[in-house]
User: What shape does this take?
Amino acid sequence: MTRISMRSTLRAVLAPLALTTLVLGALPAQAEWLGGGTVHSPQGCERYGWPTGPEMVRVRVRNGADQGERNSHITIAFMVGGINTYRIPNALNATAWFRAATARSVWDRMYWLGGNPRVRVVDWRANDTRSGQGGNSRYGEFLIRNFNGEVGCTVTLTAVLRNAAAN
Amino acid sequence: MFTTVTERPEPRGTARGRAAAATLAACVATATAHPTLAATEFFGGGYMYAWSDGCATIGWTGTHQILARWAPQGTPENAWNTSHITLLLPTGTISFGFDTSQQRREFQPLPTTPSYIWNDVWTPTNPRMQIVIGEGPNPWVDQTEMVFGLTHFSESDSCEMRVVLTMSKL
Assistant: This one.
């Protein structure tokens, strides 16, 4: 009985999902990476009161290299609601240096995040290689300085993601 | 066109951060006060996707963003032979126990009955879902990755899902 209810719930979400797939299908392959992970290892964030430890997050990433765009985008959706989105120049290749980011957040409304946000791509590579899905999977690690508009607060974002255009 | 952040209107960023921080701090306090919190617990997220064609027949296609909690076996105050994981999907929640001590690259039955929570808790009387973990996840580090397969996903006849997670120690 419950099983049927569960499936009908799934059917209810299938229509919007199908629409999403159609829209995504019109974009180049690997236009979007979809997954989750944690924002963790906060440093210098104590005086803001958050984050104090790891936070579960859903993550979307667009790599500029995938669609010939100049910028890459990292969007973090927190479990309690609220989003941070960071735009950084160039493709998501790992570098030893930080890149100046343009950051916005949405809580009760959209805010531009000041305080000189900077992002360093520590790692961006295939991770699900044992499943033969290396091309469709990514492990991403990012250091975010002046996170969430909090000057002096640095966090690490670690996420695993899959090519949204893959079936 | 990319412009430097110094040109951005910035007045509310930090204020917003404080407001959000207060709200979030309250949530964190509530979470850590949970009475059954395991002494060793990880949480994080990742994705799951349909590995076999049979998943489409029960309505599972494409990639799903998920969050997860994991209480690894053999760690302080957790069972020695059963790990527990809860997969928080956008539409519902699945929770089950599994055993990583065998480290076999073949599917093994779940030691506890899985619970599926959508509009009700469903605990199947003859559970069929099985798990395969090729490489046991390491519970002795602060940040860990986990990849596993679930056959008979959602107690189905032929759907195998693949789950990929990264998690932080709480």
Q: What stands out?
A: The first strand of chain B starts at residue 42 and ends at 50. Chain B has a mean pLDDT of 81. Chain B has one helix and ten strands.
